[in-house]
Amino acid sequence: SDSWCFIISDDSLSPPYKYPTPSQFAAFFLFFTMKPIAFALFLAAVAAVAAADGFRVDLIHRDSPRSPLYDPSSTAFDRVRAAAERSALRPSRFARAGLAASGDTSIEAPVLPDISDYLMEVELGTPKYKVVAIVDTGSELIWANCKPCTRCYEQTPPLFDPEDSSTYRDIACDSRACKLLPSSACISNSNCQYEYTYGDGSQVVGNLANETFTFTTTGSNTIAIPNITFGCTHQNRGIFSNRTSGLVGLAPRQLSLVSQLGSSIDSKFSYCLVPLSQTNATSKLVLGNGSGASGSDVLTTPLTIQDSFYYLTLNGISVGNTNISATSPTASGSPNIIIDSGTMLNILSPEMAYELGKAVKDIVDLPVANDPELSLYAACFHVKGSRDYKFPDITYNFEGAPLKLGPLNTFLEVSQDMVCLAASSAGELQIFGNIAQQNLHVEYDLGANQLSFAQVDCTNF
């Protein structure tokens, strides 16, 4: 009979460690008589348990030396300027997310694929093929460029070839996954095709399929999850980087990664973003419980799913002795601000941005900069020749969660002699961006509809 010997471990899981029970030891004995199919099913179950306990993967900032988008000729100020420009673009692209099956229907997706700030590495198929993908809480569809790519942007990494993978399976039109698409024009029993159009007209077209996704954890172990539904893209057009080859969506819709993993990760995910200045450290994404936010200093606020985005309720902002209330049309008491990992700046209503900038100017004892090139920011200051200048803490008063943020999370050095408030009124929607989330463990509990903040050192997370 067939016999097996194996070791399964994941150093990324936090103590206390779980030791096998007597019944589990008995189950291990069965490995020596298991048939391959039964063994494979057991490994899938083990993977599900590991996922529920939580596993961590690296989130690579696009400007990190680890990123394929890294430009060594750019200065830190160049990168801040580019990130601010991306922040200004994202709100205008935030529209109702959607997919369209094959046919003439095309529904606008929420964001441009190349203006998000974080990447992750994932391996597709059997044998494994590495994809460097944009990861985004504002996008739903998981997709990767595939062979043959008949009308595609030129891509530096080689394309994923589904014919080389023994675990790749096209999805039929009459399947449940295909029916998750808002509309379908495909013929029964044919493969399910998708068309995904972004706000600027960029587009990806291909086959919806199932494939095994393998993640490398922070402990350098791997976890393979079978039957992840993704888009195998065979055509695209528009604005894409030739150094990335896909996208992993974390938005609250059924085809996103977190929704597909669902109960296997206890409907939870979290991340911890290192400060932009810490170029030798890497941010983390946790899928599952992992090291859940805990302790007396944890703040919890309601999380609302609305128009395919994660919304919070911001009642106001406090700085010094000034309290700024949320204003119409984003009044307090109702979900009014998107929390987003892909936008650097905080985007506020024009009234709130103006009042916040005014309050900060009243407190900061530095010359105000009125350069038209800095009009994106709510307030900027000249710091040349100044010593020991201080910037105030700013509290974002979320429902039940007054989040007090220091200057690291609220101000940006935009040039050698200039510091700006990391807030803007660029856009119709309000967004709580990633600068404000640095050194916070941010946990999304989709089962309880709540979001938690915990102040931590993300370089040691």
From TrEMBL:
This is Peptidase A1 domain-containing protein. Residues 118-454 form the Peptidase A1 domain. InterPro entries: Pepsin-like_plant, PEPTIDASE_A1, Peptidase_aspartic_dom_sf, Plant_Aspart_Prot_A1, TAXi_C, TAXi_N. GO terms for biological process: proteolysis. Belongs to the peptidase A1 family. The keyword Signal applies. Signal peptide: none annotated. Keywords: Aspartyl protease, Glycoprotein, Hydrolase, Membrane, Protease, Signal, Transmembrane, Transmembrane helix. PANTHER family: ASPARTIC PROTEINASE CDR1-LIKE, OS07G0603500 PROTEIN-RELATED. It comes from Ensete ventricosum. Pfam families: TAXi_C, TAXi_N. One of its GO terms (cellular component) is extracellular region. One of its GO terms (molecular function) is aspartic-type endopeptidase activity. The chain crosses the membrane at residues 25-52. SUPFAM superfamilies: Acid proteases. The keyword Nucleotidyltransferase does not apply.
